[in-house]
Amino acid sequence: MYRSDFPILSREVYGRPLVYLDNAATTQKPRAVVEAITEAYYAVNANVHRGVHFLSQQATERHEAARETVRAFIGARSTAEIVFTRGTTESLNLVASSFGAAFLKPGDEVVLTVMEHHSDIVPWQLLRERLGFTLRIVPMHDDGSLDMAAYADMLSESTRLVCCCHVSNVLGTVNPVKQMVRMAHDAGACVLVDAAQSVPHFAVDVADLDCDFLTFSGHKVYGPTGIGVLYGRERWLEAMPPYQGGGEMISRVTFERTTYERLPYKFEAGTPDYVGSHALAVALDYVSRIGMDAIHAHERDLTAYCMAAMREVEGVRLYGETADKDAVVAFNVGDIHHLDIGTLLDRLGIAIRTGHHCAQPLMQRLGIEGCCRASFALYNTREDVDAFIAGLRRVVQMF
After folding, report:
1. What pLDDT shows up at residue 68?
2. Neighbours of 270 (CB within 10 A)
3. CATH number of the structural domain spanning residue 365
4. pTM above 0.85, yes or no
5. Residues 250-291: pLDDT tens digits?
6. What order do you get walking across the sheet with 328-333 strand by strand?
7. Do residue 243 and residue 136 come from a single domain?
8. Cβ proximity of 86 and 216 under 8 Å
């Protein structure tokens, strides 16, 4: 129904119609988003916030309107709680650097899950080397669900922060984040939610989750690359030191002392991606018009349809089989290397992802080096799934 909004989906690859199933890595962009970028550069391109001239004022208005669009989209209380970043990775690093500098010390504990993306593992390891706190890892059951009993046992008076993905980028597991937040708060800890794989697929409300921080990337929710969001509870952002220094984030600078700008600008050093923020707002408006509930239902149908078909393919091993699973199907087939499967499917015009998916600790838990991953978006269809399954059967027959 919406495929005509995405011109790239009409192209061919190796003489075959493109079947794009790599949406967990990045989504394609609707025409409205690309046109918004072009129009902004041709009509309203000027640096924001400090300019008194007409174009600067217009660009500033669009940039701050985009912040309000994001605030409303995720249910934040104030635009002061919406920080624009380059993406989920920078948002996570910002929290690690600034929250860690203010609140972590030797003897403290930070809790991660076994299914975290590298961007929610490595920053904490780097910080641990400097500050000497302890990392604790929540294990999972064989079906891909978190071991909530183990999680409960980990929480103590030493726990300062819990970091968890809302949806696993490999397993598609939708973690019980609201319950995890409540349990962490009862233990006196804060919670950081990596929502990169949830915000594109279903409605996310930070007030309902009651999380302290939440991150997501524009390029996974039909927006441009290079723009992302950090939501932070205002009282924590106020207490955290700046992440970077430079223009925008200052109130007054002397060689003796610098005072910082109010939220959220304290965390937005340098010229912001004011074109990207505007295009992200256009993308969020686009999915809002379709309806996040409608997107969720459609993608759940595709996921269930694909999983059922995959079970009929000889030798398939599926990873992540929880009942509450979203938009991702990870698998291997027999002894065929995942790279070979992905390469041969590509020659059939079918784009999937192969490798460790920036989740090597999860691969170790699964006992594999890597796997294949098909992932869905609002523009995918059952016909896409049928083409994928037919292509996979052909690849299996070749081996």
Report:
1. 98
2. 11
3. 3.90.1150.10
4. yes
5. 778 888 888 887 999 999 999 999 999 999 999 999 999 999
6. 316-319, 328-333, 371-375, 353-355
7. yes
8. no
- 90: tokens are 């920078």
In tens, the pLDDT along 149-159 reads 999 999 999 99
Q: What is the CATH number of the domain that holds 176?
A: 3.40.640.10
Q: What are the tokens at 366?
A: 């699964």
Task: Specify the pLDDT at position 244.
Answer: 86
Regarding whether 280 and 296 lie in a shared domain, the answer is no
- Which of these is catalytic: 165, 358, 371, 372? 358
Domain boundary among 258, 288, 318: 288
365 in the same domain as 244: no
- Neighbour tally for 61: CB within 10 Å: 13
Tokens of 211: 């999380």
Region for residue 360 given its phi and psi (left: phi exceeds 0; alpha: psi -120 to 50; beta: otherwise):
alpha
Answer yes or no: do 21 and 118 share one domain.
no
In whole angstroms, give the CA distance from residue 16 to residue 27.
20
163 is catalytic: no
Instruction: Give the tens place of pLDDT for each residue, 39-57.
Output: 999 999 999 988 889 999 9
Q: Per the structure block, which two tokens stand in for 146?
A: 């978190």
Q: Which range marks the domain in which residue 248 is found?
A: 33-288
Three-class SS of residue 379? Answer: coil
Mean pLDDT of 160-172: 98
Report the number of distinct structural domains present in the chain: 2
Same domain? 57 vs 22: no
